[in-house]
Amino acid sequence: MREVDRFSLQNTKSTEAMDAVRAHCAAFRAENGRLPRAFVLTFGCQQNVADSEKLSGLAKEMGYELTDDPARAELILVNTCAIREHAEKRALSIVGQYKHLKEENRELVIGVCGCMVAQEHRREQLKKSYPYVDFILGTSVLHRLPELLARKLTEKRRIFNGDEEYAIVEDMPILRNDSYRAWVSIMYGCNNFCSYCIVPYVRGRERSRAPEDVIAEVKDLVERGYKDITLLGQNVNSYGKGEAHGVDFAELLARLDAIEGDFVLRFMTSHPKDATRRLVDVMAAGRHIAHHFHLPLQSGSDRILQRMNRHYDRAAYLSILNYMREKMPDIAVTSDIIVGFPGETDADFEDTLAMLRRVRFDMLYSFIYSPRKGTPAAEMLGQIPKEVSGARFDRLLALQEEIALEKNQPLLGSVQRVLCDGISKDAGMLSGRNGQNKIVFWENDGTPAGEWVNVEIDRVAPFALYGQKIN
Ligand code: SAH
Ligand code: SF4
Ligand code: F3S
């Protein structure tokens, strides 16, 4: 059974609202012979995954038991993403499916959280067209879940005020999904306003946690046996900007690397304009820092990069990339690409393909541009028809597949140190990730999740490596 993180719990304040919900849960138990159940569904990025671990922690603290089955829940929280239209549609469609659950169980409380509800038009839509949704909760006010729930349970009214606080709240209980892999948010929000992106509007301005809080959390995780720790932020290289403590991201990483123990440190995401040589030096000298860099390029055309408000060009990108490869020849570099950004011509797209051939990424996350209400790009002339961006997307994938396979080829016969993730549902084999974040599969020999193994690679594919476990 998963335990709420003791480290964070030490400081958890018991509030009046928390006590009210606890009393409700105790009464429920007296009546039904079991605790009420909470179901938390997560869309979107790791930041949302980390937020959901806090929502789950709070639910458990309040007296709920977590369940994987929405049909058995008394509390459903949907943690939404707004990055592309598809993400919003999926979340809304799932919320729609919960209508019948509410009809079957009048006691069921449904809350919609996350980035989507920070947008006024979505709040209005949920309020009007989804009458069975009881409350919304923004990303910067997760700690107010007990209060909203207490109000909902006592006042029986829907709560849709959409307040955000954008402060940093420490001492949140965290119910982590794994006992060996952990997400640690080091900062929140984003100041970059890339012209296509909704994140700065829904997550607010950049703010960083104090270095001592981050260090204490990581130390505690390592002491409790966590082996794979990922530091999270929309642009981790902005860590500490504007704060009096003067610790920047490179310095924070160096201090975390000094912690004793058997663990790997990862981080995401880095904005190319802020990725520094000092950071690369810290990585190269590090003992625990994975040789993997996720450095979103977005486009290989300088003209489009400018329209995207990215503040770097191809030359600047290549300069930091070359430095990385010089210092760490084994580094895996992965990236994000958007195709079909407004005004993208065939020539711009060819520039992107040319950058792929030149950089040779180990892995790529590619997206078709999705207009986001309220962002500058959504108003730009030259929106690209679906057929055109779809065809470009397919070409991009085909080229990347070729490159990734070629990049994995030299790993044939190598031995990879892998942290086991347990049985992979699709392949029926064990899987895990190596230091460069590549997925490795091997025959199920009973290795439990969270254990390091050595795998000798005997087959490579574009997106995975296969092999046999050796001792
Ligand atoms: N802060 C991170 C990532 C944020 S979102 C960064 O700057 O890299 C993850 C990825 O989604 C982005 O890198 C981008 O490639 C993609 N994305 C963001 N907004 C998008 C949009 N409107 N349409 C399509 N893809 C988008
Ligand atoms: Fe969005 Fe750009 Fe901020 Fe990333 S850096 S979250 S892409 S605005
Ligand atoms: Fe989505 Fe919000 Fe993350 S919009 S990608 S969940 S920051």
- Total discrete domains: 3
CATH architecture of the largest domain: Alpha-Beta Horseshoe
CATH level 4 superfamily of the largest domain: tm_1862 like domain
Terminus-to-terminus distance: 30 Å
**Strand numbers in spatial order across the main sheet:** 2-1-3-4-5
Q: List low-pLDDT spans.
A: 6-12
- Report the sheet-strand fraction: 15-25%
What shape does the CA trace take? globular
- Given helix and strand content, the structural type is alpha/beta
Taking Cα atoms only, what radius of gyration do you get, to the nearest Å?
23 Å
**Mean of residue pLDDT values:** 95
The name CATH uses for the topology of the largest domain is pyruvate-formate lyase- activating enzyme
Bound molecules: S-adenosyl-L-homocysteine, iron/sulfur cluster, FE3-S4 cluster
CATH class of the largest domain: Alpha Beta
Overall number of strands: 18
Largest sheet entry = 5 strands, parallel
Number of helices, counting only DSSP H or I runs of 4 residues or more: 15
Helix content: 25-40%
